[in-house]
Amino acid sequence: MIKQLILAAGIITGWLSADAQALANASREPLQITETHDFGNIRRGRPVTHEFQFLNTGKDPIRLENVAASCGCTTPQWSPEPVPSGKSGTITVGYNAAVEGPFEKSITLVYNGGKTKTIYVKGKVEPPVPAVPLNSSVQLLKQSN
Description:
Elements: H1 2-27, E1 31-33, E2 36-43, E3 48-56, E4 64-69, E5 74-78, E6 88-95, E7 101-111, E8 115-126, H2 136-144
Parallel strand pairs: 2-8
Antiparallel strand pairs: 1-3, 3-6, 4-7, 5-6, 7-8
């Protein structure tokens, strides 16, 4: 009787551990990528770009079917070529810094038949630097005339 209980417990433990391993593998996304890039402070009127690197940790190739930005000020570029297992690919994201203030824009990646992943770019757009610095001596001369 005790041998049967030990055997049953071993079978159940093995079944649960195999099930947990399968669940862990299923929940792991094959497309591994840093989800956010912070541009920091950037000047208005100066577009910026960042190259996101991703790694295919799955068994099948990854084919990016679409990469869509949340607004027209953000432009993604990517290769339509599949990325084999164990290899990496890139997605270049440009941001047109036309409006001052903080921003956070999302980019949705659609791959392998409808799977999705969202990445972000963020930062703060500051006013442009004046083309010519103010000369206090000139200002003083203008006031005296």
